[in-house]
Write a structure and sequence with these properties.
The protein has 10 helices and 4 strands; from the N terminus they run H-H-H-H-H-H-H-H-E-E-E-H-H-E. It has about 240 residues and is mostly helical. InterPro entries: DinB/YfiT-like, Maleyloyr_isom, MDMPI_metal-binding.
Amino acid sequence: MGNERIAVDVAYRTTRERVTSWARGLTPEQATTPVPALPGWTVKDTFAHLAGLAADVVGGNVPAGVPDDEFTAREVAERADRSLPDVLDEWDAAGPRFEEILAALGDAAPKNAAVDVWSHEVDVRSALGAPLPVDGGPAERILDVMVRHGVGRSWGDLGVPALRIVLPDEEWVAGQGEPAGTLRTDRFELGRVMLGRRSPQQMRALGWDGGDPDTWIPHLHVFGPASADVVDSPRAT
């Protein structure tokens, strides 16, 4: 899996089309449902962020580096008076042009563009108690690759000992040197941990062997951790 090349524009489009098709069936009441994984945001706010980011990129209105919280808050605030269908219409209009930009970047396209859509799809579906797709598609597979190659990269410089990560079908050592502990989990859970969708308590409850989990927990996530437990919906059967 680590050698699999997945086009970011294809992953973004596949996820965008799936989630917007689903979201068009939501009621106005569902659109105002709070999203526990995103404190302060509703379902509509989450889509406002996704639509706003695509529109800003297409319009050339993006900051240098990674957009910060202020930039994201502006995207949501500018769409506060719009309905969810209007927000989805904007995303449908800007999305294809954003995907063209990603395609033109080729291997330099930011992988988190597709992963962000997948992550927020899980956030909003779970907020509404809706099942997750059986297969998260290419965006979820991109996240798998990001986790495989991202977790542990800087641990040696930080003095964090190596950790053996055991998944149902694969295992590897994150970090440098002999592993001082083992974490047994699955790809989905590890991805949600990395994206900051698990609280420290939830991370401590994972399958740890050897060592103190708090040795690694602060270094497993790029965002977060969540301030309260986040419970995701199960996959559809």
